[in-house]
Design a protein that fits this description.
Chain lengths: ~400, ~400
């Protein structure tokens, strides 16, 4: 029997206990012996839970128990999750986590510490919930240079945008419905302002390019400014507006950003609707691959946490080579201003203005939208070039295009 | 430097050499040292190829060279690929392959032989080309019981069906265009009659349920019978007809089948178009995840072959636990007749007939289609139940629904 501890018995923590219990035999088969949750660390008591008597309130009980081989951290937030992770690694215990904030902020240091102490630090559940993405990037795509990663990384905002697109709802009422359904929190800022997606794209950028950017310093635009004008323009051009985390290299620097993008219907990301996530990887040999599924939720996220537990416990004999990230220097990092891509424009004015805009943007198509407006897609250029080209016209909105 | 040999220098074999050359440094970093293609086995000579002088014609040269740690078999066909694989494993060499025919036919025996000789036998490229699916099923989904796997597993037939759907082409002309584009072979039988997809779903079924079925004995219907009636009915109901490999358990037996299915637009598989593949896995904790990408082609398939090479060479210290498949007994295997699902029907006749059919099928919707026809989707039932319910009506066509 192998003993583990769970830190944080909230949604994902209790979900992981459920996965470990429900699929116990299957998991034991993979690991070679049964996996036992010896401790659950939480501030609360859970007297009615079957595992209620395993609850402890002091991390030292877990750290000091040599029987505990692995700690699954699902507390959320930077502290004390980071501090407990450090302590667990220093006590020689493997750590798995669903905590994107800790990985995106302290990933470089924690991976280094884990290598030093010859333990693993895995975080499949920190991006895309249950969707396999981190391990595939490290193994199945090991034969490739990653060119870019683009994804719908936040289910709450995708639910809201899908509502707006399908039912013509405005942002405020779509947000209310998301809250009523439990998909959005009472304070939805981290989701709708793009910070959650920013942390996730920073983790994906580190996996793709080896350097960890500061999630607070990347170009981040959320969806609070999305209106019916966006959905009307997107519909006219055949596609959808999605909140996209995007990373690629530009002139040897790493660009990571979060922004609403127009996604044409030929791009499979445009069909990722509702609370689902979808992550598109472009690689130099494979081409494009999409990973789609439940990006959040109790059991899906727990499924990824437990996959990491199995991966570690079934390979205990071997020391894993963990990714070697560095903290990005200012010179290694760049921002959305250098991104060259097509842009969607919605402009106001006469047919003559539309002709003028079509020429200025070298647009392939210009489509009339209700209310005497025109939707165009520019040739590839930077956002500034696109804005400058239309300086004399009335621009209602502009978003980059994810091709 | 680690030495490997390539068996078969066709599309995938030469593609793998290209991946190993182009991404040499990256691959060396993963493996800890450089990977060298010491031999290429082929009947032909390649005097103009940079690796032309590595070509040998006798497998013994490779088997007898103790420097060769790994053999990548990309010959296609059952023989001599199977025989060379056996011999390589018996000589203590790891084997990776893209050869679905060998895996689907001899997988049980070859995995057992590899375990006996303490080497690996990996086959990520045998299903879904470059799409990561086999390793994710074994690792990321290890915490889950697999409930079903359903996928578009053949790019040729998906190209043809997409042409028929988008441009109203008939089967014969869409096939001709696929052949002109190099997506279909001069003799397209293995693709259009579903045998290629049958081999792949048999491999996925073995990964999901542990037993290997005989690909020649599973229910297999191709797309040669698909007409404009199918596409018209699918369009009327909001979705597409796709050739689907499907596997699940029914009453403890393993069902695997290949058939055209109607896929409603809410199912992400319905948006997998052209030569792309998409594989939907339903698992008891994760729920549904879709893996999408290039299901064939030189570099995408080679990308998966080389990922397997890296996986083995970067974990040489450890003995891998390979899947333990058994050959399915007659009692463990069942066929499409037991599948309970919704069915799409296109019927001919008056409005009264439509009412009658709606009742008999417990259909939720009945939609008029041009030519005085009606398209309906039945409640879940077996194919026989559905046929019997409509025995007095003129049924133009019926296909199962992938929900």
């Amino acid at each position: 029997m192998i003993h583990i501890a769970i830190l944080g018995f909230g949604v994902v923590g209790s979900g992981s206990a459920e996965v470990l219990t429900q699929n116990r035999e299957l998991i034991a088969k993979h690991c070679g012996e049964e996996v036992n949750i010896k401790y659950i660390l939480d501030l609360r008591e859970f007297p009615d839970h079957p595992l209620g008597e395993r609850v402890v309130h002091d991390i030292r009980v877990i750290l000091d128990d040599p029987e505990v081989a692995l700690v699954a951290e699902m507390m959320g937030g930077a502290h004390p999750a980071y501090d407990f992770t450090r302590a667990a690694i220093e006590a020689g215990k493997h750590v798995v986590t669903s905590n994107k904030e800790v990985v995106a902020t302290f990933g470089v240091e924690l991976l280094k510490l884990a290598r030093k102490h010859h333990v693993s630090y895995l975080f499949e559940a920190s991006v895309g919930g249950g969707i396999p993405i981190i391990r595939p990037l490290q193994t199945d795509l090991a034969s490739n240079q990653i060119l870019s990663v683009s994804g719908i990384l936040n289910g709450t905002t995708n639910f809201i945008l899908t509502k707006m697109e399908r039912e013509g709802a405005d942002f405020a009422s779509a947000l209310k419905e998301a809250q009523a359904n439990g998909y959005a929190e009472a304070n939805p800022a981290a989701d709708v302002e793009g910070l959650d997606a920013a942390r996730k794209i920073v983790i994906l950028a580190a996996l793709a390019f080896g350097v960890l950017l500061d999630p607070n310093k990347i170009s981040t635009t959320g969806i609070t400014g999305i209106t019916k004008d966006h959905t009307a323009a997107a519909r006219a051009l055949g596609g959808a507006v999605k909140l996209i985390g995007h990373t690629r290299t530009v002139d040897g620097k790493v660009l990571a950003m979060v922004s609403p993008f127009f996604v044409p219907s030929q791009n499979p990301v445009s069909h990722v609707d509702g609370v689902f996530n979808g992550i598109l990887v472009d690689a130099n040999m494979l081409g494009r691959a999409l990973f789609y599924g439940a990006g959040a939720g109790k059991l899906p996220t727990a499924s990824a946490v437990v996959a990491d537990i199995i991966d570690i416990l079934s390979h205990r004999a071997e020391e894993r080579s963990l990714p070697q990230w560095r903290t990005a220097t200012a010179e290694e990092q760049t921002d959305a201003s250098v991104l060259v891509c097509r842009h969607l424009f919605l402009i106001e004015g006469c047919a003559k203005c539309a002709d003028k805009a079509t020429k200025a943007l070298r647009a392939e198509a210009c489509v009339g939208v209700e209310g005497g407006r025109y939707a165009l897609i520019s040739a590839p250029m930077t956002a500034k070039e696109a804005r400058d080209a239309l300086s004399e016209l009335t621009v209602v909105l502009t978003v980059p295009v994810l091709d």
